[in-house]
## 1
Amino acid sequence: MTHPHMLVVIDHHETRVYTTEFTGTQPTALRPYDPRGELHHLHHTAGHFQGQRAPEDPQYYAGIAALVRDAGALVIFGNGKGTSSAMVHLVRYLTKHHVETADRIVGAVVVDVEALTENQLLAEARDFYAGEGTGDDGDTKERS
């Protein structure tokens, strides 16, 4: 079943995937594999990296890719910028491993994920899809 509009809300703790064409939609939540409750952030994986950042968990991003593969259009909301952003890692992962899905990304928007309620996130996504989330040149905007 193809979902015309999907929203991914991602940070290093969890990912929530919504279909945005309906009000009151229930998210599908995906959390990093952490059987012992020791990993409080996605980017912390087992191993010794001697002061270097631990690599991201590609299986986590593969799970997200599976959830959004039927999206007709996809907007991603996340915190932060650059290598500290789970949103940036997701976009890079999709671009490298799931090109067809990456081609359907219509925006990657920095928002304060923790400060917005679920209804506010969905309203932001609907506004984005209605054309209010992009400039005339199609660039995404930062929102907080």
## 2
Amino acid sequence: MTLSTITTPFWEDPRFMARYGEAIRERREYVGFTTATSCANESIRLEREDPLSFKRFSQSSLSRWELDKTGEFIESAHSRSLRTLAYLLNWSSEQFERRVGVSIGRVPRLDLWLESGVPLMRVSRWLGHSDTRVTERVYIHLLREASDGESLSLERMLGEEEL
């Protein structure tokens, strides 16, 4: 047995991790969505509240993704819908990719989020960064533009609550 085997918890060991649809179903149930319908309804609510950030998905799409054994249906899905699903499952894009096996990419409209006042802490979490310093370092040009336009106060940009 190697040292990495001993120090890696079994639930993070790729040999024991569910992939593709099975991972989605397990996580959906774990975070409290007892049915695919309840999760899909929440995606609709999120899109209504923030259409620039979220894209809804149907119960039938989610059910099809959960039954996917190869990743084919998940890979063909709209990436913004998958990012919405990852958000509902409390997964970063990296966690989604590692557990499900499909890349969902980065959030493309970071500039709009910052301009509309989404706290940097929340944006950092959505991007899967370990803390806001990573986000600041990677997206410093967007942060400067947002603060130069005075559309954001520093307190609002950094966020008052940790999510």
## 3
Amino acid sequence: MGMFKKQDAVARANGAAQSGYSVLDAQVVVRGDIETDGMLRIDGRLEGNVRRAAVVVVGAGASIVGNVTARELVVGGTIAGNIVVETRVEVEATAEVDGDIEADAILIHEGGAVRGRLCVRTRSGAPSGERRALPTPTRALQLGAAGAA
């Protein structure tokens, strides 16, 4: 039985390698930019940009000093730089982001911190430029009174 488990682990490792899975271990510090078409997990420190990646996972305790451009991003550590993501950004409770975030969807868990601007793109892919004015308290009262009459 143990032999099959070992073969399964080897098969999973080979599958991860074929799909382009890269890991920066917790003891690793990289100075420079990274580009990949596959998945990137960072548990150490990156002093540079992630210029292209399919999925980036920044583990709790990990840090990036630089910008991140990817298809999808999950942040558990810290990022000091701007983030541009095609689909979704998830900021976990242990995360800190010092920079702007642009994506189709942004999820910030309770406890996660973002110090920067958030830009959620519309379905067409362009940032939403139309801003609607919120009703003032006086206007809201007028609307309420009109509905009561």
## 4
Amino acid sequence: MCVDRGMYVRVCLSVALIVFTDGRYIGSVLDRNGLRPSRFYVSKSNFMYMASEVGVANVACDEVIQKGRLKPGRLLLVDTQHGIFVKDEVIKEQIATMRPVASWIKQEVIFTSLTLDRR
């Protein structure tokens, strides 16, 4: 809940698990506080079940091949075309290397040495 009282705004302490898709990829991201639990199962029949609590879906124990939980600040992405999980580190590496920021800084920023007159 966010409270706005003139110039004073209290920080929002709500929890967030965001799930998204574009038809090919299905993903989710958990807020950095990790207050909302997010658990998932992967079954032998290649289905993924994700919910905030365990036991939401009736999946037999012998049918489950992977169990896990989404950790704070992490992404979970499934490529439905290839039937694979894309790891959090891989996603973040791809995003970080999309733009050559380091070379832009070298080309565009002029560094000068400043001397301060301290009298």
